[in-house]
Specification:
alpha+beta; about 15% helix; about 240 residues; Gyrase A, domain 2; Immunoglobulin-like; five-stranded mixed sheet; single chain; 13 strands
């Protein structure tokens, strides 16, 4: 049986909250519309959405005559301002305290007029902008881990087998805390060590996440469950530090 030797200690890193992500043009928290295929926007649960603007960036730099704005939500009903939905007179939409049921297609129709200077002839123009908005869940705390193991060779399937077995073992160790490994990866490198010659090492990296399957069962009815998930991920850190 191949022998594996742990070469380096675990490296722990605290990750912060990411900003809302979008495939649309974004400037200073304002997301402009785009005609055609809807852009995707991701909003962390219980955070406010970025401001969605009912026009494209190019049009926003022009004079608009008699603009009107009509927003339609994921339930295909007209949106009006309330304690959760904020719509300004200039057609800007923001959703407060974003929840999973609020995910879906948000559509805005902009109507405005063009006026010919010579004849004062008016023409109504309509443009539609679609925004696909999704809620996503991200822990307050997660941990990046990096470890190195020696191996006899970088060729063959043994390294891949070991990598899968290691992930399974780590998931089992954390299962009682509803945590699991995500984004695992590894590469094999040849490393020359003074007085030891050339050896082969596996550079393994992964992240510990507190949202393993069934994690909601530990929430005891809590809405966001942040206190419990934060406690679980910190407990994983403490437990593994005791093993080192």
């Amino acid at each position: 049986m191949r022998t594996w030797v742990l070469l380096s200690a675990v490296l722990w890193c605290l990750t912060g909250v990411r900003c809302p992500r979008s495939t649309l043009f974004n400037t200073k928290g304002f997301i402009y519309g785009k005609t055609g295929q809807p852009g995707k926007i991701y909003v962390k649960l219980h955070q406010n959405s970025p401001v969605l603007i009912c026009m494209d960036f190019k049009l926003s730099k022009k004079e608009i005559v008699d603009p009107t704005y009509l927003w339609i939500g994921p339930n295909e009903k007209t949106l009006t301002g309330n304690n959760r939905i904020n719509i300004t007179k200039t057609g800007q939409l923001m959703v407060k305290d974003f929840l999973e049921p609020l995910s879906g297609l948000y559509t805005c129709t902009l109507s405005y007029k063009t006026v010919k200077a010579e004849t004062q002839e008016e023409k109504t123009v309509k443009k539609r902008y679609d925004f696909m908005v999704f809620a996503y869940r991200e822990p307050d705390y997660s941990y990046q881990m990096a470890v190195r193991f020696t191996t006899k060779s970088c060729i063959g399937r043994y390294n891949d087998v070991f990598f899968r077995v290691l992930k399974k073992i780590l998931d089992n160790l954390m299962s009682d805390l509803s945590c699991h490994v995500i984004e695992p990866s590894y590469k094999c490198h040849s490393v020359e060590i003074p007085e030891h010659g050339l050896i082969h090492e596996l550079f393994i990296a992964f992240q510990v996440n507190p949202f393993a399957p069934g994690w909601k069962g530990a929430c005891n009815g809590s809405v966001d469950c942040e206190d419990i998930t934060n406690r679980n991920i910190l407990q994983v850190r403490i437990s593994w530090q005791e093993i080192e």
